[in-house]
Every structure is written in structure tokens, then in C-alpha cells.
TrEMBL record:
Keywords: Isomerase, Manganese, Metal-binding
Organism listed in the record: Hanamia caeni
Xylose isomerase-like TIM barrel domain span: 98-285
Name assigned to this protein: Sugar isomerase
Region (Disordered): 1-20
SUPFAM superfamilies on file: Xylose isomerase-like (SSF51658)
Example GO molecular function: metal ion binding
UniProt key word GTP-binding: no
Family matches, as InterPro entries: L-rhamnose_isomerase, Xyl_isomerase-like_sf, Xyl_isomerase-like_TIM-brl
Listed Pfam families: AP_endonuc_2 (PF01261)
């Protein structure tokens, strides 16, 4: 066993008296601490199978050792995260990187770790070794109907795997687009894509959702066929009530007001959920909250406001996923940091004095509105988040348990120092 319950409990004992003081202090400052803790305990963030290894660059890859060699080991890694923080209770798979050999075995293993299967992701942005037709010039948009059919069939196969595992959603991200002006007829590319998406949509089980993820650029650098939230919303509106728009924080043009996009998608009942990450330049896929934590808080502020207005359940009505991976940190430590950043932003948006904000807005009191937002953002809610983790059976300080118990060293001993997980 890489990490046992006793090790987490021992570490919690050591940190308990200091934590209690911090928790009492913050609980005195806000009036809804208990309610916030309950919501935090319910809130689970799905971990992408492809974030468990170092990667995220088309240049060098520098594996740190002990990376998962199979889907089983990926599930074990996420089980470790979930044992440490109590908030990583779901896994998002990417096909064909994660094809389950025996779905029952995989399902049981996940259940042993308290994990469920979040959205399934299809991949028509790479050519696989045994693939008949190439996606070099796109998949669902392709001028050749046979290529489009291959992409549709792949997505239907992904749904089949997802059904076996108990997933309830499919995320379609297309790298389709063009790199040079004149390469593509935009209207035909859109219509071909819509037709292909419709065929996939028709294969969705009635209790499934389809998420259409947009991205401004990369790998194509002139146009992307699902390039922004407007285009995604156009597709999902035409597709029907089971189709939603997925926001990946790194997929916008610089300085886009993501919180406003989120508010409007939510208002229209068309927001699927998130791929959380952070970025300074483009689709950098950096640790959540590492570059623009205020933006993350502002997004959560809109989410809480908009979900409450529609009587939505924070924990279950949207899909919360991380999509981050890079080269320099231990991937598991990095994911612990990402989940923590999400929980902090969520907690801060739950303590915001919302009635006072509405009042300030109605009085055009811009100064007070800003004060209210920043008061919540500048409140140190880490002890509240830690208390939620403690009550969920996790660690007060997940990162120090990870290091003190030498989790990575033990994974390297078990799996070897030269392993590379599948992914980008
Ligand atoms: C594309 O940049 C993306 O954000 C999509 O979600 C992919 O599925 C994922 O990254 C992995 O490449
Ligand atoms: Mn993504
Ligand atoms: Mn991306």
C-alpha cells in the first residue's frame, strides 16, 4: 500500500491544534461557515487521466518517474489524490488513450477508490497507428464524407465505453480548422461539423449530455471550426437539449471576460461545466489559480450567483473538471494544488455578502461593489477548506503528507523511474 489511512490520521493529529485555532478564527469572521463546509464536502472535481504524467508540451517531455503505466494505475493515482483531499472523487477518460480492457474490472477498481466516471473524451485530433483515414485536414468538418464518418463512429464507440463504465457525458473537442486563409470554406466546414455532431448526438443515451468544447486557436492558427463560445452555443442550440457548451479556461483570446461568458451560458441553461487550468499566454494548461486567482474567484462568483438563481445543485448540475498538465512539477502535487485553488475560489464566492452586492449594484455604488468582492477574495478561507477535508476523511495538509510519506518515491519503487503515462 502506497499510503494508508493511519498515515493521514497521524499527520492530522500533529496539525490539529493549530488548525483548530485557525478554523475558530475564520468561523468567527463569517456567518455561514457550517453551510460553506457542507457545500465544500459535496463538491467533487474530476481529474483527467491525461494529467497524471508530465507533458503538455510539443517539445521535450521530462518524466519524473513512477508515472502510471496503465488505466488501473491512473485510477490508483487518482485514488491517492482523493484519499488526501476528499474532493477528487471522479475521473475523466480520454479514448483511445484509456481504452478499458475489461470495463467491469475497471469499474470495480474505481469504486474501491470512491471514484465515479465523469465525462468521456473522444480524440479525433491525432491519427492512431491502425487508423484508415487521416485527420490531417480535420475530422468532423472534413471535405471527405468517409473521414467524417470515421470521426462519428469513433465518438459513438467512446459513448459505448462510457456506458459500460457508468459515465453520463461525452466531451467533444475538435482541433478542426484551417491554418491558412483560403484553405477552408467556413460555412461548409460548419455545416459538415454540425451534421457529424448530429449523428453523434443521435447516438446519445437519453440520460447523457454532450459537451462541445471550443478553443480559439491551436493546432490550427487561422481558423478553428468550434472557435469560441458563440460558435459552440450555435452548435449546441441546434443540436438540442442534451448538448451544452464546455468552457476550458485556457481556450480564449487574451483578456476575454470569461466570467461574463459563464454568466450568460448559465442564464441560457447551456453551460456544461469546466476544464479548469490557468494561463498567462494561451492554452498553457498551468496549475489552476497559479496565474490569475482573482479571475478564478470572479468566475466562481458568477457560478454561485447564476446557479442559485436557477435553483441548481452546485455539486451535481455542472461538470467540474481539471484540464492541466505540464513539465516541471510532480503531476500529483500539481493536481493537489489545482483542486485546492478551486475549493478556495468556491469557498470565497460562498462567503460573499451577496445581498449587499445587489444593493450596491442597484444604487450604482461601484466602490462598495468592489469592496464586497475584494473582501471575500482577500479572506483567508484555507482553514475552512481544510476543515471540509478533515471531515471528509482527508488530510489537513495533503501536500506535506504526500512528501513526508514519500508517495512519489514509493511509486517509483513500484513502477520504475522510466515510465511515461499516455497523453499529450
Ligand atoms: C485541447 O486543448 C484540450 O483542452 C481538450 O480538452 C483535449 O481533450 C485536452 O486538451 C487534451 O489534449
Ligand atoms: Mn480542455
Ligand atoms: Mn486545451
Amino acid at each position: 500500500m502506497i499510503l494508508g489511512k493511519e498515515q493521514i490520521e497521524d499527520s492530522n493529529q500533529e496539525n490539529l491544534s493549530r488548525h483548530k485555532k485557525n478554523h475558530e478564527f475564520i468561523s468567527d469572521q463569517i456567518n455561514n461557515a457550517e453551510e460553506v463546509i457542507k457545500k465544500l464536502i459535496d463538491f467533487q472535481v474530476a481529474i483527467p487521466s491525461w494529467a497524471l504524467g508530465t507533458g503538455g508540451t510539443r517539445f521535450g517531455r521530462f518524466p519524473g518517474g513512477g508515472e502510471p503505466r496503465s488505466l488501473e494505475e491512473k485510477i490508483e493515482d487518482i485514488g491517492l489524490l482523493h484519499a488526501l483531499n476528499g474532493s477528487s472523487g471522479a475521473i475523466s477518460l480520454h479514448i483511445p488513450w484509456d481504452i478499458p480492457e475489461d470495463s467491469d474490472v475497471i469499474k470495480n477498481l474505481a469504486a474501491q477508490h470512491g471514484l465515479r466516471f465523469d465525462a468521456m473524451n473522444s480524440n479525433t485530433f491525432q491519427d492512431q497507428p491502425d487508423q484508415k483515414l487521416s485527420y490531417k485536414f480535420g475530422s468532423m468538418q472534413h471535405v471527405d464524407k468517409a473521414v467524417r464518418k470515421q470521426a462519428v463512429d469513433h465518438n459513438i464507440e467512446v459513448i459505448k465505453y462510457g456506458k459500460e463504465l457508468g459515465s453520463k457525458s461525452l466531451t467533444v473537442w475538435l482541433s478542426d480548422g484551417s491554418t491558412f486563409p483560403g484553405q477552408l470554406n467556413f460555412r461548409k466546414a460548419f455545416l459538415n461539423t454540425l451534421e457529424s455532431l448530429r449523428e453523434v448526438y443521435a447516438a446519445l443515451p437519453p440520460d447523457w449530455k454532450m459537451f462541445v468544447e471550443y478553443k480559439a486557436y491551436e493546432p490550427n492558427f487561422y481558423s478553428t471550426t468550434v472557435g469560441d463560445w458563440g460558435q459552440s452555443l450555435l452548435y449546441t442550440s441546434k443540436l438540442g437539449p442534451q448538448a451544452y457548451t464546455l468552457v476550458d479556461l485556457g481556450h480564449h483570446l487574451p483578456n476575454a471576460n470569461i466570467e461574463q461568458i459563464v454568466a450568460l451560458l448559465l442564464m441560457e441553461g447551456k453551460l456544461a461545466g469546466f476544464h479548469f487550468n490557468d494561463s498567462k499566454y494561451g492554452d498553457d494548461d498551468l496549475t489552476v489559480g497559479s496565474i490569475k486567482p482573482y479571475q478564478l474567484f470572479l468566475i466562481f462568483n458568477e457560478l454561485v450567483e447564476g446557479m442559485d438563481a436557477r435553483n441548481m445543485n452546485h455539486a451535481n448540475d455542472l461538470a467540474w473538471m481539471i484540464d492541466a498538465s505540464h513539465n516541471v512539477k510532480d503531476p500529483l502535487e500539481d493536481l493537489l494544488q489545482s483542486v485546492e485553488a478551486i475549493m478556495i475560489a468556491y469557498a470565497q464566492s460562498l462567503i460573499l455578502e451577496r445581498k449587499k452586492l445587489v444593493e450596491a449594484q442597484n444604487n450604482n455604488d461601484v466602490v462598495t461593489a468592489q469592496e464586497i468582492l475584494q473582501k471575500a477574495f482577500r479572506t483567508d478561507v484555507r482553514a475552512i477548506v481544510a476543515e471540509a477535508r478533515l471531515r471528509a476523511g482527508g488530510a489537513l495538509n495533503p501536500l506535506s503528507v504526500f512528501r513526508n510519506e514519500k508517495v512519489r518515491e514509493n511509486l517509483i519503487k513500484e513502477r520504475g523511474s522510466k515510465t511515461t503515462a499516455t497523453g499529450l
